[in-house]
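Practice record 12: protein with copper (II) ion.
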Amino acid sequence: MLRLKLSTGIVLAALIAVLGVTSIALARTQTAAAKIVTVKATEFHFALSTRTARHGLFIFKVTNRGHVKHDFKIAGKKTPLIAPGKSATLRVTLTKGPHKYICTVIGHAAAGMKGTFRAT
Ligand SMILES: [Cu+2]
């Protein structure tokens, strides 16, 4: 009886270990699923590494390569104002469809800092 209890204990411990490793692996997969888009902001233009990707979680890495401050807004979320030479990241979930992005500094979108990202 003691032997049975011991072996049951070992099996349970092994099961718990396997479940733990599995959940870590799943967490890693979910993190890896975030798509990274690099964005270069200049006067007065955004250059994106891609403007179309499958819908889901995105991380926009925005670098200001210009000479005045810029920000980047998409799907209701925006970066802080980014000084020249600095970067900011924006985590945002994009649903299927077109999503307009802009720089919210007055006059910048009208001057060309705007575009449409398509999530498929
Ligand atoms: Cu701007």
